[in-house]
Amino acid sequence: MKNYDLKKLTLEEKCALLTGANGWQTDGANGKVKTVWVSDGPSGLRMHNPEKQEETFTATAMPTCHVLANTWNLKLAYEYGATIADECIYRGADILLAPGVNIKRTPLCGRNFEYFSEDPYVSGKFAVEYVKGLQDKGIGTSVKHYCANNSEYDRCHQSSEVDERALHEVYLKPFEMAMEAKPWTVMCSYNPVNGVYASENKKLLDTVLRGQLGFDGLIMSDWGAVHNPVRAVEATLDLCMPHYDGYVEKLTAAVKSGKLTEKQIDERVEKVLKLVEKNEKAKPTRKVESTEEERHARAVKMAEEGIVLLKNEGGILPLKGVCGDCGKQSENCADGCGEKKKYFVYGSISECPYLSGGGSGRVQTAFKQTALHTLIAEKTGAEVDHRSDNQWDRDWRGMYHIAYDADVTIVPIGHGDGVEYEGDDRMSIRLTEAQEDRILKIAAHSHKTVVLVYAGSAVDMSRWIDAVDAVVFVGFAGEGVNEALSALLCGEENFSGKLTETFPLTLEDTYKGGDTKDGETDLYDDGIFVGYRYYDRAGKQVLYPFGYGLSYAKFEYSNLKIEKKGDTDFEISYDITNVSDVAGKEVSQVYVKDVSAMVHRPEKELKAFSKDEILPHETKTVRVALDYSSFAYYSTAFDKWYVENGWFEIYVGGSSRELPLKGKLKIELPEDTQYSTK
Ligand code: GLC
User: Residue 337 — φ and ψ, nearest 5°?
Assistant: First the structure.
């Protein structure tokens, strides 16, 4: 394997290696160094087609990462990365610019669909498997956007003012956890952090990322995030993307003037050369191991596990074909007359569903959708009528008659890349007033109403949720959405997704501090209280809590056991019984509460979870491990993680607000590790 010799490179060639050759490729130093191709994005390959600059090659549009996280299935996360890796190998991309691991601090953020969760532990666990899935196939990754890039509004200028505890316990945590997978690169964000651009923030890039988190790969900038090449090199940024005209001149001038030493240049060049060598070493190991059809089938399977059933009053779902065949009678007959059911699917989304939000994460798929209403008809044998959105304006009374005559009206509704996209935030978390009106009006004329919500983050449903019988949060579920959704709605598959972000009752209920109105800074004075940590501390009701999701099955929890394995190592075990006649997968969650600490801490924090398939009337014993990181907080007294002795409570259940099992354990570390003991 070729090792490059710095001495054979001129100063100009070395400086040229520190910025891209163009938008997607590293520099070749006059042919002396191999180059590396990078490409977006988190939910599938979005690779620019060199022949048609504005276009990208088509690829499999996977469910976007918020739907992947809603599966709570880490094996799927690994498979997801491996699936995208096959398309990178096929197209010749060496590094995928993903995953995005930014925390969903506000449901307004335009890129929430690209991210995993409001919770750092979920985000970190998914990041690890995602990165391993790609890198085990020889394709590099770029964990992004480092860091505290939690809204899109004015992302290139507004400084995220974050205290040390919130930084480490919330915003850096997914990056810290991702280090387990040894990502080839990390991408720094556009925004300043505590007043200094991430691309020239030496404390963040060197002291923290390299020093504390142990990152030894290459740090690249987000596209256009470098403002000052000399300060970027001083801060140890390795690669400025994309090509920056004048980068070489500015750096060589700085070396000649003594502002920079050649050693500082060489240290950055070493990182670029190591990446090139790593890439060259990986190339022979790469092989495509899936077909387009297999990749599509995986996208369907992941969507099936990531779409979330939020409401199912009276068990209106699953839809059946004929009256009585599921033990439930139609409205107008007593004993299951066997007559065909009638369904009305109202909305254009049935034929052209939203697959993703907008921006660099959007994938161009060649897959041709079969309409949702067609699939429902095929799967149930029922009579299914469909009307598109514009039918409403022409003949809204006609809609009412069709709805009235149907057993169930199904309303796919929401938005896509026109509302949620990179570079801007939503102003509201509601659907449009017209959409809400339509739901209310059509429901008023329907026997039963099922609403399917397409969005990339939390939606305020409070105005219409009580008027409908069932609600499914589809999310941006990728090209497999209609096959997945129809299988779930018709009972071929069972829902097993759960929310990885809180759905608040209204935007007013979310944390709104922060905006200092000076247009310059976003004050993170919610501190560590983000997501469910915030709603718990504020004692607020929410529409649907973090970790919530329904199933056609019903699970009961029992028999919590806590076994000490070491000073801060414990095995938590508990039984889950499926008390229904339907097989299902349950996502059980384990939360930890520090009963009394010398610092403020959240009411509870997720520290373990498990997704388990449980057959009808089966009881499964689940075992998870807790370790030092399950109990520690980031001490700004010591600038490191720290565990205080004392009692901790353990809560186990199927949602952050439904935790039927409770236990406690005591941490008793040697006295000389403890400070300020009472
Ligand atoms: C964009 C995004 C980043 C993406 C890069 C290349 O601005 O912030 O996520 O990977 O530029 O498109």
Answer: -75, -10
